[in-house]
């Protein structure tokens, strides 16, 4: 069911529709950490205020989503597709420490629903900064 929903959302993004539930969305292109196969995941994103984008590895359960593991395993093989545009390569960097806390404050302020989800989780959501190469 999730695969079908993602495919439907990806089609909308490719047709230039760049929002979902009031959030800006993109398609994250990764390579499977074990399979080596290309993967596409629609995700909410925010500007980091420095020319990059922030994505949150929230997922829907008690563990990080698969796309996060793919990014960590192959950070040099990540690209993004913005609404109605072709994919472009990006540098993916997981934020930690003060950088993460500052970015988290920005995410929580812009999207309070994500902060609400985080407050109900036992794990700390990873934040990834994407910078176009």
UniProtKB/TrEMBL annotation:
Reactions that this protein is recorded to catalyse: oxidized coenzyme F420-(gamma-L-Glu)(n) + a quinol + H(+) = reduced coenzyme F420-(gamma-L-Glu)(n) + a quinone
GO cellular component terms listed in the entry, alphabetical order: plasma membrane
An annotated Gene Ontology molecular function: coenzyme F420 binding
Superkingdom of the source species: Bacteria
Signal sequence interval, chain numbering: none
Family: Belongs to the F420H(2)-dependent quinone reductase family.
Alphabetized NCBIfam families for the sequence: hi_GC_TIGR00026
Identification of the protein by name: Nitroreductase
Lineage summary: Bacteria, Bacillati, Actinomycetota, Actinomycetes, Mycobacteriales
